[in-house]
Structure formats: structure tokens, C-alpha cells
Hints:
This protein is an alpha+beta fold. Helix content is 42%, strand content 25%. It has 5 domains: 3-32 and 322-369; 79-202, Beta-Lactamase (2-Layer Sandwich), CATH 3.30.450; 216-306, Beta-Lactamase; 377-577, Acetylcholine Binding Protein, Chain: A (Distorted Sandwich), CATH 2.70.170; 580-703. A hairpin with a 2-residue loop joins β17 and β18.
Amino acid sequence: MNSSNRRVRAFFFLGLIISLIVATALLFRYLDNFRRIEALTLEDAQQQADAAAAEIDRIFGGIADIALDLAADLSDGTLFYATIGQRVRADLLSRADIDGISVTFTPYSYDPEQQLYQEYYYRQPNGRISSLIGASYDYSQPPTAAPDSPQTGWFHLPLAQGSVWLEPFFATGAQKILIEFGTPFTRVNQPDVAAGVVSIDYSLQGMRELVASLQLGETGYGFVLSQSGLFLSNPVNDMVGRSRIYDFVSEGGDDALSTAIERAMAGERFSFEMDDPVSGEPAWIFFEPIPSTNWTLGLVLNKAELQLPAQELLRDQAFIVLAYGVAAIFAIGLLARVDTFTTHSWWILSIGASLVLVVVIVIVLILARNSSIREGVTVAGETSVERYVETYQAAREASDQAVELPTGIEVHSLDFSSPTIVTVNGYIWQHIPDDAPEDLLPGVQFPQITGVEWVWQEIDRVHSGDETLIVWEFGVDLKQAFIPTSFPFDQYAFAIHLEPADIRYPVLLVPDSRSYRMQNPLFLPGIAPGVFISNWSVQSSYFSYQLQDNGQGLSIAEFAGLTNLPDLYFTINLQRSFVGPMLAYLLPGLVAAGMMFAFITGDPKVGDQEEIIATLSFSAALFFVITVAHTALRDSVAAVGITYLEYLYLVLYVVIILATTNAFLLVRLDIPLLRFRNNLIFKLLYWPLFACVMLVATFTTFVFV
């Protein structure tokens, strides 16, 4: 082996080592970023869970202490029965979050001549303290399992079990859900004889506000569970006091969720990763016990909001694949023994390098196609909707709350009448609450609408409970900014921008999540079954919010508080079916490239003028075919800039020029480099350079955007 052989082999060996080191370093950095972000997020969430659980424990521990002190003073005679009202009023004034305090006596304990007696002091909506003296019903009757059993557990459970937090209940008078702590007290000088129960009512609104204040991303949320798994706090109001966490575990359901719930109910502190059972989105779920009440605090964080941006992830992944691809090319060179300088070994390197580059291109295309890029704040599911709306409303003045209108949509057809205009038909509905302004105009506007003809017709109106449901049929042409740069591997986020029809009031359109049976974007909520879009496949659908300034130059918008209202979007993610375009446009390009390669691999006759004529004739014919296919491609997608597949045709134009120039130089000039082994260098570089240019185009189109 001479020095040249050793230098070539050393070059490929050194290249292999360096590229492997670079690729491995990129991989470790990528994984380390994942671990670091996950660790920081988990640590922050765990700290928030600890702090929130401690705060809830402090609040309810303090409430329990008030009841225990009151019961102790009644038991030892420090507090006289005649002064109960004075003491209770003082306790109520000291804690604004307490809704009411009652002292209820066992039969004949308050007065030997009076069977039942109770004093109940409660806070009215205006903040004033009122009282009810005397028993309004016979609470001494114990509860049973019968359907018509008296609702007296609040009195009998503390007598039987001691101090206890009771399950929440809906207070009809206060019109809100309350939770109650009860503790017994004894007769003076008779510590073994129960004299009654001290009860404290606490509104769950305070707990809801505390949990809502946690910084859990745009759609992350918290909840609190009672000992029986009943929701004491949840972004969805209808779940509080009515639903249990066990409701999310169907028969034969998720074993991981069932096990997690059992651990949480047992008072264990832990976190785990799974799909949120409410929204279906990947999430981290934390459980934290609350010692003073034996309740459980839960936190749900949407993983997608806490990871690196999708495009940044794609860039890191693409460079890792590229680095390993370069290492594979150097390895092929070593295995092929290119240091021997045989034609066979160099052909192996040429073909192997070309195939490796093609594999890298394919992998990057797959990664890009699987990369889901969403704009705005995705609200998938009722909890994320309520969480977002609650956070937004909390940021507004109490006197300037936006009118919430639950709005739903069902798309029945989509038609791409032109590359920038989409015709969409379907139904839109709204729930108008009875307490909305009387002159509020229901409905929506389509800011993207183009043309003057469109369909908007009310087809149903039903009043139920405290709201009116209105359903409209619609059909509109919507302007879309679609640039098919990545054709034919493009994704299209078709976004329907919805704005309130009435601009006189601050109206917030809220996704009507309860109307959709499946809320996971992958189950296509808002898309009617059987919707077919030619050459496209529907991947997901979801609602999202984007915060925009809706009142630029419109004085009434600022007057009505409409500026900086989040706009509601219903987005349908589409992926183009690439098989058809590849057969129509990619295959002819590849055939043309193969024909040109077959032509240049022939044995050129040095000095023969006919060689130039033959090359020009072949190149002209091939140029005509390529031009027709290229023009048809641009017309089919109404391209403005350069689409991805066009790079293939641009490369073919360059190849035609190079092949013609190569033939001219071979015939007219005596250039040893070109005549080396019968034009071997040009032949060897043909496919690797072809693949390399397409690789650069792939990175330019999909990675560096």
C-alpha cells in the first residue's frame, strides 16, 4: 500500500470517526434537551402542586380549627349557649371564605323542655350575615339507604365518626355548591354525652379560584378530589359535586388510570404520564395529598405546550439523521476499499452514497410529514376550554366580563374551488343564555369570506332551561393563504375564523365541547362522517384561540371592550395524498434523469463532431418532455414560488446543460480530467450530486422554514 492509498483510507476513516462523533453528540444533545425540559417542567409542576396542596391544607385546616375551638368552648362551658350567636358572627367576620356556621343540638340538650334547637348563621350574596334560629325540620332522624331517606348525614356522621369533612352538596338557598366540616361537642361536665354538632359551610368557589391561579400552561388544569373521588374543584363546573374521577374509567378500561386513581385515593404522592382521559392529549398528571382533609389535589399538564416547538424538534432530528448518513457514506467508502482506486470500488461508493442520501431524504420527509404544527392555543376538550376561558375572564375587570356564547360547528363538505379559495358547507349552532343582553345579535361572522353570495339560514331555535339553542345552515367561500411550497408532501391547516356577529358587546365565542361525543382532535370533532376531499386526507380537527387586536381603527370596538378579545378558530388539518402527484410528476422526472444517465454512460467518441449533434438532439427532446411536465405541475397547484418537486426539474435543466457542455469539451478539448477512464468522473458524480441537490432542497423546504 503506497502513501496515496494510505492517505485516502485515512481520510475516510477519519471522516467516519468525526461524523460518528458529531452525530452522537447531536443525538445526546437532543435527548438531553428533552430530559432537561421534562425535568424542569416536572419540578416546576411538582413545586406548584406542593404549594397548592399546602395552601389548601392551611385554609381548610384553619376552618376545621374554628369549628374545633367552638366545639371545645361549648363542651367545657367557656362559651355559654346564650352567646353562641355573638361568637359565630365574629368567626364569620374573621373569614370571608366561610359561607355559614351552625350549632345544632341533640334532642333536649339545649333545653330540657325543647326537643330540637339549631342556630345557623350564613353569609348572603351581598355580604350581610343573616341567621336562622330554631329547627326547620326533624334532623334527629338518621339517614338510611332508602330513596326517601332524610338528608341528615351532616348531623349524624360527626356524632358517629367524630370530626369529618362531608361530601359537597348544592345549597338551594345560596345557589352554590358547599362543602361542610362537622365536629361534635359534649354537654358541660358530661364529656361522654354528645350535646350536638358544630358545622361550617365553605363555598367551593374559593378553592376553584385557588386552583385556577396555578400556572399550568395555556390549557393545563387542576382539580381536587374528595375521599370518595368526587370532584370538589374542576374547570368544568358541571363536574363539581356531581362527577367522580372513577367515571373516566369504563369497564375494562385503562389499567394504568385505574391503578393511579387507587394510589391517589390512598393518599400517595406521585406523578405519571398518559393521555388525558378528558381531552385525549398526551399529558403529565400529578397527585398530591391534602392531609387535613384526606382529599387529593390533581394537576394535568399538556405535554405539547411544554415541549420545544415542532419546527425546532424537526431541525434537530434532521441534523441527527444527516450526520449518521454522512457517517454511513464514509463507512461505505472504507468497505468498498476506494483506496485501491479501482473503478469497481468507486462505483460502489457512488451508488452507495446516492442510496444513503435518498434514505436521508425519505426519513426527513417522514419526520416533516409527522410533525404537527398548530397555531394559537389549542382547546381540545371541555376542561381545556373552561380553563382557557376562566384564565382569560380572570384577567378582565369584574365589571367588564365578556359574554360567553357556546358555539359549535359541523362541516359537511369542503371544496377547493381554487388554490386560495375554499367552499365550506355545514351547520353552526349557538347557546344564548337568558341573562345575555336582550338586543344581543346571535350568530357569527366569517372575516375570510370572499364574494357577495353566501348561505346563512336559521333552521332551528329551541329554548331549554336558561338558554336558547339556535342552529344555522351555512355555505361560504373563504379566502385562504395557501402556498404549496412543500408540494406534494404538504400539509394544509384550513382554519375557519369565527367572530361574534354583534360588535356592540364584548362577546367571547366558546367551543361547545359538550356537543361533541369525541373531543380528541384525532377523532375529528366537528367533521361530519363521510366528508371526502379529493386528493387530501383529514388528519385532525380542533378549536383554538388566537389573541388579536380586533379594533384597529374602529372606535366602537374600544368603546365596547372588544380589543384584545381572543378569536376563535376551527382548524382542519389536511395532508395531501402524495401517491397521485408522485406518479404524475415525480416519476417522469426520475425517468428523464435515468435516461440522461444512460445516455452519458455510453462511450463518447473523442473528436467526433457527430457526438455533439447526438447530445444536442437528445437533450432537446428531453428538455421538451421535462418542460411539459414542469408546466403541468405549476398549473396544477397554481404555484407562486418554487415548490419542492420543482427542484427535481431544475436539477434536470442543469443536468442537460452539464451533459451538453461535457460532450462539447470531450470532443473539442483535450482535458485529461474529463477523459480519465472514459469520462468516469462525470458518471460517478451524476447520482450523488443529483441526490445531494435534492437533499439541500429538502432541508430548505421542510427544515429551514
